[in-house]
Amino acid sequence: MAVVRERRQLNLRLPLPESPDRRPRFPLPLPPSSNSASSATQCASFCCSDFENLQVLGHGNGGTVYKVSHKRTSAIHALKVVHGDSDPDVRRRIHREMDILRRTDSPYVVKCHGIIHKPSGDFAMVLEYMDGGTLDSLLKTNGTFSESLLADVARQVLNGLNYLHSHKIIHRDIKPSNLLVNDKMEVKISDFGVSKIMCRSLDPCNSYVGTCAYMSPERFDPDTYGGNYNGYAADIWSLGLTLLELYLGHFPLLPAGQRPDWATLMCAICFGDPPGLPEGASEEFRSFMECCLQKESSKRWSALQLLSHPFLQKESSCSSKSNN
To answer: Where is region (Disordered) located (predicted)?
Structure first.
């Protein structure tokens, strides 16, 4: 089995759940890509003196995240300051994330407004500030999500994934802590440090990146669960686990509170049945989750197909009636 042959290459971040101080990685500026002139995020020119520091939001991955206010406009941003002595792996991920953010322009993907270089060798990204934190923090603060709220979350993330996938970008690390939210319950995809731009339809793709817990079965064993690794389908599996975690209140492949080693988690993903829903869940929700959590990658629905699933259509119709 592939996972046995490549066991040492697995990038496992255990135990679960991950610590709350983990933050998105920090991009370096890159020259604009040749195909990004019309659709990419346009980064403005800033300097550190333009901002007033309001609050430290967190530390990790070689830098610090601040909540800042632009002195002239009073606009609130998230400022990610990266230390110049970050290790080479962090820098590679920084380059990757910045390249992707320069190519994207979607209301469902966090925006980069600018890059700052400091004389010390540090640099910073000026990012869209999402005042609600992450879906992970929202789960811990407010508890589990209802079906109607999950449908709204799923619709927004699927719109983001459909946009990314249509531009040949796979995220490879969809999970609650990488989905940002604001007080309007707008959800945006963040943290593109392990993402990949697929230049060709059969572009080789290292499947052992991202957070192990949310990896799809074919990322461990592509020979058994789908042949060639399909990064688009893997994003859908990760989304399915994410939604189920928000519904159940714990990581869905293991009992609540269990903190597994990598072998336990790998066996649950590869050899266990796909996680199911408890009694009381609607048939539409069950069907939707089954479309996301097919162990064989070719049987999973795409982001575009899932956007037309009855679960999202039903909840969208109910929300429209309640607002009238």
So the answer is: 14-34
